[in-house]
Amino acid sequence: MNMMETKTTAPGARASTLSALGVAVRIVLIFDTVALLFAAALHVDGASIPLGSAVFNEPQIVPAAIVEGLAGVIFAVSAYGSLANRAWAWTSAICAHIFAILGFIVGLIATRNGTSSFNFTYHRVMLVIFVIGLIVLLLPVGRSALGHRSPSNQQQV
């Protein structure tokens, strides 16, 4: 038994665990899509949203809108691929995560001298989500969650 397999007494328990991870990965891909497109929309023209006694202010940041919009579209394609069980779903999810990580690192560097509190928190939280997502996708269990076969599995089929 390798380290990724779990010993269970219920038949099919491993399969349901993998499908639960597959559902979780797909939900996170959708979340990433929505979060990125929302942030891109905020940065296109800036936003001032009254929230009772406070006001949410986010300045216009066109370069951020471009990068977040592109990343959101890449994640949307990846989410579609994963939901439609396309053969390229895993590859597109990896590409989406790498693009987002690189974009957010550039964003962190660009805002090192100051930014809004939303932008400060958003960059750090999303970067952690992207890095964890990439790590999960690169693990064998993450590959199988999106139906990706390793080269050794493809030869056995």
Contiguous helical run count: 6
The proportion of residues forming helix, as a percent range, comes to over 70%
- Distance separating the two termini: 21 Å
Please list the strands of the largest sheet in the order they lie side by side: 1-2
User: What sequence of helices (H) and strands (E) makes up the elements?
Assistant: HEEHHHHH
Oligomer: single chain
Kindly provide the radius of gyration, computed on alpha-carbon positions and rounded to a whole number of angstroms: 19 Å
Share of residues in strands:
5-15%
Tally of separate domains: 1
The secondary structure category is mainly alpha
Mean pLDDT: 84
Low-confidence stretches: 1-9, 12-17
Q: How does the overall form come out from the CA principal axes?
A: elongated
Sketch the major β-sheet: 2 strands, antiparallel
Query: How many strand elements?
Result: 2
Fold blueprint:
Layout (H helix, E strand, L loop, with lengths): L12 H33 L1 E5 L2 E5 L3 H22 L5 H22 L6 H22 L1 H6 L5 H6 L1
Antiparallel strand pairs: 1-2
Search tags:
6 helices, 2 strands, 157 residues, two-stranded antiparallel sheet, elongated, mainly alpha
Explain what the structure shows.
The chain is mainly alpha-helical and 157 residues long. It contains six helices and two strands, in the order H-E-E-H-H-H-H-H. It has one domain. It has a two-stranded antiparallel sheet. A hairpin with a 2-residue loop joins strand 1 and strand 2. Helix 2 runs antiparallel to helix 3. The N terminus is likely disordered.
